[in-house]
Model the fold of this input.
Amino acid sequence: MILFALAADAWPWLLQVTNLTDVIQFVLLGFQARLQLRILIFCLLLVVFWVTICGNVLIITLVSTSKNLHTPMYFFISQLSISDILLPTDIVPYTLYILLNNGATITFTGCMTQYFFFCVTELFECLLLTVMSYDRYVAICNPLRYTTIMTDGLYLRLVVNSWLASFFTTIIYTLTASRLNFCGPNIMDYFFCDLVPLQEISCSDAFPLKLLICLGSIAFVIIPSVIIVISYGNIVRAILEIQSNVSRQKAFSTCSSHLAVVFIFYLTLFSVYIFLTKAQPDINKILSLLYTVVTPLVNPIIYSFRNKDINKAVQEAILKYL
Done:
């Protein structure tokens, strides 16, 4: 919320320059339902939000303080946790407000700011999961050369470039969205500001935005998915060639966590942005909840309960402060 507020104050002049409409605010309908159901969703989201924040903060702390976790893989996991903190912090608090009021208004600048942080974190996670698949590929398929290939300079550059690519791509998306014209009711049947609901209520030519969505889907969803599939195809082939059952099981265990996260994340992204259907807005909202709220919760659970190094670091931290 602090980032949301700072950004809203920092760049309204930019949005005023680029926006060609007289739009002042939008109405977000959220989840239209009876009060009892909205209260139930509110409570669930609140619990999920705090568990997500605590779990990801714990992982970042452990990776920063435990020397055993100072490796490229855990550095990538800590970066994933940063993304998983920023994303729900951007989306969930205002969603809770919408649930309490059965809909709420959001200013044009606030909408663009919310979309900006949402887009940066989503694009970054797409690239980071691809980088993590490459890291696992090198570790399993070229274990003897791992330290010479995955150097400190390389994995730092990979992460920094992923953040920069996500940031500058998001600027293009945000400026394009800010130039849309809105000449009808500015009511979005959604729970946060995204390109798809903005496009649906806009009376501008939809081609530039559709082209951006198409290009973005190719660059950040389809191509990374292909790279991940190729990486894990090679990984599976290398694992099957291992003679020792113990070593084979250990290799599978190392990759299963990352593969589970990738599957959940990309499945929902493909559903919303590649196979999106306007006729089923409720389904789209549920799918959006999966990758904006549920996935950031699942990531620390998978990496903590299925990872021996993380569990060992937790035990050491508990013993240290007892």
